[in-house]
Design goal:
Layout: E1 5-10, H1 13-23, E2 27-34, E3 37-43, E4 52-57, H2 61-72, E5 78-81, H3 85-94, E6 98-106, E7 109-115, E8 121-127
Parallel strand pairs: 1-4, 5-8
Antiparallel strand pairs: 2-3, 3-4, 6-7, 7-8
Length: 130
């Protein structure tokens, strides 16, 4: 069994698409609409046929409440892994991202956190074993 798709709620899909592609460097995988519903996914350019991230509109009260509660509690909605957190931090920061935590060593990893401008905190981790 594999994880093929996971979702993150966003307050604006167009803004999210720009952030996740132009700032983070992901590629757009799927983008189609059916009435008022838009199915929008991105993937890592390192694994374009790997796990997709759905940028799901937070247009229902439960999704919005969950997203806001996670943000207010300083909890990342998504955690990405990298082999060089400091290089990714510099690359993404140069593209205009707002980081809420610089690369910081914690037991077993070095992590950094940033705001995706769409209502979420993201964490990028470099595990110590890498």
């Amino acid at each position: 069994m594999k994880i093929k798709l996971t979702s993150v709620y966003v307050d604006d899909q167009e803004k999210a698409l720009r952030f996740y592609t132009d700032v983070l460097g992901f590629i757009k995988k799927a983008d189609f609409t059916n009435g008022p519903f838009r199915w929008l996914t991105v993937a890592s350019p390192d694994e374009p046929d790997g796990t997709e991230l759905q940028l799901a509109l937070n247009d229902n009260p439960a999704a919005k409440a969950y997203q806001q509660a996670m943000f207010q509690q300083n909890q990342p909605a998504i955690m990405f892994n990298t082999s060089d957190v400091k290089a990714d931090y510099e690359r993404i920061k140069a593209r205009g991202a707002v980081f809420v935590m610089p690369p910081t060593e914690v037991p077993g990893a070095t992590i950094t956190r940033l705001n995706d401008t769409c209502g979420n905190l993201l964490q990028i981790s470099q595990l110590a074993k890498w």
